[in-house]
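Pasting as-is:
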Amino acid sequence: MNRAERLGAVLDLLAEDGQLEVDTIVERLGVSPATARRDLDALAQQQLLTRTRGGAVAHSVAYDLPIRYKNQQNPEAKAAIARAASALVPRGAVIGLCGGTTATAIADALMSRADIMEPAPDPSLTVVTNAINIAMQLAMRPQIKTVVTGGVVHARSYELVGSYADAVLASVTLDFAFIGVNGIDANVGPTSHDEREAAVNALMAARATNAVLVADSSKIDKRAFAAIGAPRLFTTLITDAGATEEQRERLADRGYDVIVAK
């Protein structure tokens, strides 16, 4: 692993929890403590994290690292979750997609479906999203009607947040909303690092008949800063086979229909 790849791997580790210790880097990447500290110092100089005694935390203006630094995290699990989410969506449905890499994978899965991509006089699918990158992907597909919320661009996640986004979402109804999270805890529920994203995601979920959480197993039993909506807002969780039976049972006891993607 060269230095550039190693720095990217350090950012991936930081994105998992929002904080990172030198010892974790040493264990996960197989480098010396001195190398781990130099890598953290280099990333701090680039304003990509904030150094702490013995490690680092996500930079104060970067609650969520850019998608370009996260798109290699658990790609197989996210692709499986995306396929399972796509399988729930009938042709002609109206769905909501928040930002994030799992939601981006869902957009990819939908665009690969032959029934949706079939030429037709009317849209085969309507997607409402507050994610700029997802809107750009879908805009090239005339078979999909793409509705973009207004709002202020969150530079670290490409999501539109704020009252303009709220105004659009409050005026639509959705069949499904697929919402990614930074953590899902059986007692606390779904959470996000950023309160503005959490607010938009909660409203999108509230406008849907079926509000679905999409989270790979690394997010289970994790908590982030901001709660996403009230208890019982979400009916379903799609995760991957890495979720343990005990984790699935605890979530099911809290009322989630847990779908394990394969």
